[in-house]
């Protein structure tokens, strides 16, 4: 039962991952896993799979070995659930025996001393499939080099599209988003020029974050565009990872700096706030390394699950860490309101930072839940909508941050009269009851 659950979990984790299929090279060395998932792909009615397996070596050279229990097949998520039930009920002893899968080939087709197999399979059943290798012989170690290419043919021109059916829209989506962020950067430059007398250093930092996000989206658009046409990224994936790395670090640093009130409440960082940055930045480095490993190795790697767990853990820790400075700022503002005689000013600042705290929580956690839900329940043809949902949430977060913390020539914090001061003082008396 435990092994069946492990097979199901491994297969499901692949289906919920966001890796994109392309021409892929994989090296398997002395691997005795029963199930090795490779690429996931959304086929149209004009799909094709090209699979080339070379340097095949089995640790057991017994000529009586049942090689029909070793091979490749295609399977959907729903079919895999039924295959698991068949295995548990004893109807079959190997996934390759199920009538619910689409077999590609088994090693039974290997002629004596032959070490390679290749096949081109035309796929007319439109759905989301995963290429899977099954080894149903206990403790048999297998070594091989696998080259796989899955693509859809255009109905008219017969041109190849190496992006999954649900993600073929992504190049245009990313190009459009990069233009939106480019426009956003232009608007922010205009705001900084118009309000240049009240611009703080953090406003230039905000501009840097928007520019890096623009470059990240542009490189991702080029990356997916080349993959769509040729199956290869042609180096754009390297630029994408670089800008993704820089964007991730600067975004989390910006949230920490705003949360501490740097340049708004005080022009310096305290010791504990510096420690948060010293924790967040290295963790972001680790998270980006993990993401690169996850994207480049694919689920066939034996350490893929480990790296995926590392990425999720580091991501959660970073998200929690950036909330602490905002909590500290809210606490400091509440305490200052009782001593400095500027109740109205502190109440407005307190309201602002509390709003930002709520927005950061919604952006970090709620957005992730929505995107995950869309990836899970959306039809394979519309998986690109989860990308749009996540990017629109990010755009809304950027706009909110810029609007709330924009440079102001006439800061409303300092334009208050006696009545507003008294009303604010009364309101602040109730703040002791507020707990984050």
From TrEMBL:
Keyword Metal-binding attributed: no
Organism domain of life: Eukaryota
Start and end residues of each GOST seven transmembrane domain: 171-411
Signal peptide span: 1-21
Lipid bilayer topology: Multi-pass membrane protein
Keywords: Membrane, Signal, Transmembrane, Transmembrane helix
GO cellular component: Golgi apparatus; membrane
Compartments (UniProt record): Membrane
Domain annotation CAND6/7 N-terminal: ranges: 27-152
Annotated TM spans: 173-193, 200-218, 238-264, 276-294, 306-328, 356-374, 380-400
Protein name, as recorded: Lung seven transmembrane receptor family protein
Gene source species: Populus tomentosa
